[in-house]
Task: structure prediction
Amino acid sequence: MIEKAKRLVRSGRVERISHDRFNVVGDHGTYTVFQGVDGRVTCNCLGFQSKGRCSHAAAVIYLTELFDKQNR
Ligand SMILES: [Zn+2]
Result:
């Protein structure tokens, strides 16, 4: 899952559309990922609804961790 998340980020398929919202273009459609003030992320895809995690949410976590490192 983390490799897929990194691939999504590297191929530019994660787009920040506001301070707490991201568009992620997945293999089966575009999903919206929210990040709360506590850093928790939620995605509106079916995988997240059933499992509580998905590659889109993981991609957003990966991306924001990259930002944090760059800003430190
Ligand atoms: Zn998802």
User: Anything to note?
Assistant: Strands lie at 14-18, 21-26, 29-35, 41-43. Residues 31, 43, 45, 47-48, 54, 56-57 surround zinc ion (CB under 6 Å). The chain has a mean pLDDT of 94.
